[in-house]
């Protein structure tokens, strides 16, 4: 016979199972289970980047019972990694941290509830989605996944230390800060070539560092790149280290093959003012696998209305399939996703008398 003793502590229930025989060492088998919230939400949003915050603003303004879950202590998403933002309409020369704080303060002033938590799974039961986090399980009629994405890292010394101080993952975001300076782009696909072309318009010199002897980018992009006099391609080269203390001053590269100038294999240092890493982006879909259809790269398949193939599940911002990932496009997604969520609950007769967004 087993005796089950249940202890309650804050929002967590701990189940301890003892054998009925006398307990000598008090060793137990413990299972922790996050509390299932009795409150039922109309909308749960995952992620407090521009898409998630905007979705929250539109959700509460529409009268939806909304909660936003963010795994980090501060809001902003990838915006927080940007030293200065200068391409968001109406706001110029603002740091990423300041913009993230402004987003959060605006949302909270309208009554949006933001809680810390990261979804480790979602499933549907009795008409409600159950969003499982470490501490709680939330019940909601709709879910907007706005967990964002993160750049694939080179994994070299100096990359994380100089992030935002010359190391960037977005030429469209930060390229203007390097006017008349020397920069390097790492990669060989469409994104890397597009970044090099973009930077060539403002930079004095652009190096494109690629580990192979040919590019993977579309031929039309390669043709445009080759026409630029201030772009130099470093074939068969890999970045070993990013140099600098309080800002980028150069990169250490290694030639994996002798180049056309018959240079030997080996390493050399290249003086640059900034480096743009474009070797891919990884969606933050951990724990969300199988919820809705994704493309070959793991992005949720959704159009401008942010609807996935799972009714009631919406994807907004960098985590969905889209050609351009910027702060302003993520914010637009948030508005569209909230509008789609509102339409979903109205069509299903769940919410009555909602306000206009």
Description:
By secondary structure, the protein is of the alpha/beta class. It has helices spanning 50-61, 96-109, 171-174, 190-200, 219-226, 327-347; strands spanning 2-9, 12-19, 29-46, 66-70, 113-116, 121-125, 128-132, 136-145, 149-151, 167-168, 182-186, 205-209, 231-234, 237-244, 248-255, 266-271, 274-277, 281-283, 313-315. Helices cover 20% and strands 32% of the residues. Strand 3, helix 1 (50-61) and strand 4 (66-70) form a beta-alpha-beta unit.
Give the key terms:
single chain, alpha/beta, disordered N terminus, 32% strand, 9-stranded mixed beta sheet
How is the biggest beta sheet arranged? 9 strands, mixed
**What level of helicity do the residues show?**
10-25%
| Overall SS class | alpha/beta
How much is the average pLDDT?
Answer: 86
- What is the molecular shape? elongated
Strand content: 25-35%
**Secondary-structure element order, as H and E?**
EEEHEHEEEEEEHEHEHEEEEEEEH
| Unreliable runs | 1-33
Distinct helical segment count: 6
Radius of gyration: 25 Å
Distance between the termini: 58 Å
Number of E strands: 19
């Amino acid at each position: 016979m087993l005796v089950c003793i249940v202890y309650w502590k804050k929002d967590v229930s701990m189940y301890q199972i003892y054998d009925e025989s006398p307990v000598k060492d008090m060793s137990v088998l413990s299972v922790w289970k996050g509390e299932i919230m009795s409150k039922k939400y109309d909308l749960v949003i995952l992620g407090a980047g521009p898409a998630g915050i905007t979705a929250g603003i539109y959700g509460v303004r529409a009268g939806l019972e909304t909660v936003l879950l963010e795994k980090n202590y501060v809001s902003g998403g990838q915006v927080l990694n940007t030293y200065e933002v200068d391409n968001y309409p109406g706001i110029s020369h603002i740091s990423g941290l300041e913009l993230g704080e402004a987003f959060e303060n605006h949302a909270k002033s309208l009554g949006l509830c933001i809680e810390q938590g990261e979804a480790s799974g979602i499933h549907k039961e009795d008409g409600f989605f159950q969003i499982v986090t470490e501490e709680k399980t939330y019940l909601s009629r709709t879910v907007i996944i706005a967990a964002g994405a993160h750049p694939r890292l080179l994994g070299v010394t100096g990359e994380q230390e100089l992030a935002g101080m010359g190391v960037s993952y977005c030429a469209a975001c930060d390229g203007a800060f390097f006017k008349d300076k020397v920069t390097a782009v790492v990669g060989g696909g469409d994104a890397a070539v597009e970044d090099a072309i973009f930077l060539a318009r403002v930079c004095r010199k652009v190096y494109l560092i690629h580990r192979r002897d040919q590019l993977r980018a579309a031929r039309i992009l390669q043709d445009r790149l080759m026409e630029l006099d201030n772009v130099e391609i470093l074939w068969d080269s890999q970045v070993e280290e990013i140099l600098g203390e309080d800002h980028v001053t150069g990169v250490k590269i290694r030639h994996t093959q002798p180049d056309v100038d018959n240079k030997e294999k080996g390493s050399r240092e290249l003086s640059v003012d900034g480096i743009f890493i474009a070797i891919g982006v990884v969606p933050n879909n951990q724990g969300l696998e199988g919820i809705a259809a994704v493309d070959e790269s793991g992005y949720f398949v959704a159009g401008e209305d942010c609807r996935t193939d799972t009714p009631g599940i919406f994807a907004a911002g960098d985590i969905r399939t889209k050609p351009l990932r910027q702060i302003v496009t993520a914010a637009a997604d948030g508005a569209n996703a909230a509008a789609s969520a509102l339409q979903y609950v109205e069509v299903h007769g769940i919410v009555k008398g909602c306000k206009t967004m």
